[in-house]
Amino acid sequence: MDEAPMMEPFRAKVVEPIPFTTRAQREQALRRAHHNLFNLRADEVTIDLLTDSGTGALSAAQMAAAMLGDESYAGARSFHRFRDVVGNLTSYPHVLPVHQGRAAERILFSALLRPGLITLGNTHFDTTRANVELVGGRALDLPCPEAADLDSPHPFKGDIDLEALHRALTGPDAPRVAAVVMTLTSNGMGGQPVSMANLTETARLCRAHGVPLFLDAARFAENAWLVTRNEPGYRNRSPREVAEEAFRLADGCTASMKKDGLVNTGGFLGLRDPDLAQRCELLLVATEGFPTYGGLAGRDLDMLAQGLLEVTDPDYLRARAGATAYLAQLARAAGVAVVEPPGVHAVYLDAGRLLPHIPPHRFPGHALTCALYLEGGVRGVECGSLYLGKEDAHGNPVVSAPWELVRLAIPRRVYSQSHLEHVGRTLARIARHADRLPGYRITAQAPLLRHFRSELAPVPLHEDEHRSTAVTTTPSPEPHPPVAVPPRGALAAHL
Ligand code: F0G
């Protein structure tokens, strides 16, 4: 079906209504939410692109599998089915189910790290970094140089910088490197994939220096798909074969199955090392559940096992990647630049470029997410200075994000072409009067992870004494010009 790259290899059997709201209703809802889209009720949102995590649709076969779920506390049939499917895919002999990806991260890093130890990675996802730091470790990102250029069409901007990795594995801190973590695809870097050449060389370096290599496999199938499309030597391979090879290269993985497991909740930790597996199993029993259910219901394990069989279907992956490419195309046509090339799980809009009149401390990404909601009932997530920046007590910028982005993540098997076209039309309407969009100021700040809970208010253009033209290109009028933080995890989803 090459002539119809977006045509889904499924039809709908069960549907869920989505609300159509008026502009007045959306204005009222946004005011009530203190201009923070996390505070909206989901039934006030028409197209919800906040995340692709746990938001996908189940297949008929998964629903049928749920009915076979065995809810025995220990040794359930569901666990054995799940373990066989994961074992066949990954080749890892030890498979520990968990309720979601970050639980696998917490267990692995609690068992592996102690204060002062380091993990290296292409770009750690937020929760991965948090779980490394919670046990006193340090997570260092070594993204390849192309990743810093949002416009570069380089097909594998999720690669790790191999020279930097080599330096880190041979330099003065080498004895403190406890693991390398490769995130497939790199959510912290715009959903960009990792090439098999890069992963193979990373594995070789890790082996040579006696450091274990782990995959963060949340989007392993989407990574494999992009490898079969764009990497020489892999064009005749199936996504399943590529995925199996990727897992084989590593010593284990943490995996949120809310993405490429095609389930609403679930995850697993896969390991080769029996001693490490035993230490992890103790933590699993104490914090998640008995090793044959790990915080999941038997029916969850069965749905997950079935999801893992479905997710590497080339027709499914082609349609999904086609939908993302189509949304990126609609954004470009509307005059909104996106992080290039678009990956599979999300399109990242360049709000900084669209709204040069809004300085970072007035949150251009946030302004665009509010406009998307007000204009079309679309919910995305800010990945810019609201998330990564800092201001002083007077609201003057101290640190800004390197880019002001908005992530539109696409739930799996949920939205149709007409839904994406609604997002495209909404963007086009916004872009036509982009210079009139207001910035925002924080009125109540949350002490931690402020983007979740902070309250904001629009700053009408004529009232904003801080108004400047493109802060990156024009000298800032601020007493404290914003300092860009390094591009570490800047494109992450921070959920
Ligand atoms: N690793 C990656 C690459 C992720 O994107 C996520 C979650 C996790 C680990 C943690 O998994 O949510 O199951 O505990 N990402 C979501 C997102 C939240 O919206 O991108 P989890």
UniProtKB/TrEMBL annotation:
Its EC number is 4.1.99.1. Residues 48-423 form the Aromatic amino acid beta-eliminating lyase/threonine aldolase domain. It is an enzyme of class 4 (lyase). InterPro entries: ArAA_b-elim_lyase/Thr_aldolase (IPR001597), Beta-eliminating_lyase (IPR011166), PyrdxlP-dep_Trfase (IPR015424), PyrdxlP-dep_Trfase_major (IPR015421), PyrdxlP-dep_Trfase_small (IPR015422). This is Tryptophanase. Belongs to the beta-eliminating lyase family. Keywords: Lyase, Pyridoxal phosphate. One of its GO terms (molecular function) is tryptophanase activity. Its cofactor is pyridoxal 5'-phosphate. Residues 459-495 are annotated as: Disordered. Residues 476-485 have a biased composition (Pro residues). Pfam families: Beta_elim_lyase.
